[in-house]
Amino acid sequence: MLPVIEQMLVLQDRDRRLLRVKAELADIPLQRKRLQDKAALANAGHEAAKVRSRQIESDRKKLELEVETKRDFIRKCETLQGQTKSNDEYKRYRHQIETTEGEIHALEDQELVYMEQAEGAAKELAAAAKVAAELKAESDRHLADLAAREANLQKELAVVTTDRAAAAAVVEPQALSRYDRILLTRGENIVVGVNNATCGGCHMKLPQQVFLATKAQKEVANCSNCGRILYYTRDMEG
Fold first, then answer.
1. What is the spatial distance between Cα 202 and Cα 190, in angstroms, rounded to a whole number?
2. What is the pLDDT of residues 55-91, one digit of tens each?
3. pTM for this predicted structure
4. Sequence ranges of the domains in the chain
5. Please, which residues have CB within 8 angstroms of residue 74's CB and are 6 or more apart in sequence?
6. CATH code for the structural domain at 19-171
7. Percent of the chain, pLDDT > 90?
8. Which among 119, 140, 137, 117 has a CA at the least distance from the CA of 129?
9. pLDDT at 235
């Protein structure tokens, strides 16, 4: 195998590691956002349960105030009823008292409904609080693990970048330029083997001349279809 091919294979190994590390680093913000969104969703459910519970309690207190206002009205009517000497006024006050008592009974029935709703809302709130707390704890653990993973990947990136630069430095400039162009267009498979006269990158049959040039190992050969750099070893079928 040509020395330059061996050098580019080493470089390719560094580039594959570099691409993997960069891909993992690029995915970390997405993973972090998914964790944060999940915790935020649970927290939003908890907040919604709080709002519902508070609203029910507020509505119930409004009913209590309304009931108390009507009871004050009844007390006033009873006082005026006791003071009047007119039979018609007496009946009118009596009618107002009875009507208001009926309204109070209806309000108290509604208050019972609110009390039942408040009990259910309290249970929902407790359950939502538990879920939110558990998801936050879980999210915090995963976020901490992710932060540690990110820090390790940043260290690995620095090492691999240095290794890549060292590997590139020994490759002849013209060959390196060709390699880098293919890296931009073909990704991590730049230098590929030839098996049964077929390109290991695009898997197309090679023209006889290209295959023989690759097999001869006297110069760097490229696939006539995809442009990748080719190499051949004795364990590959002809």
1. 11
2. 999 999 999 999 999 999 999 999 999 999 899 999 9
3. 0.71
4. 19-171, 175-231
5. 97, 100, 101, 104
6. 1.10.287.1490
7. 94
8. 137
9. 76
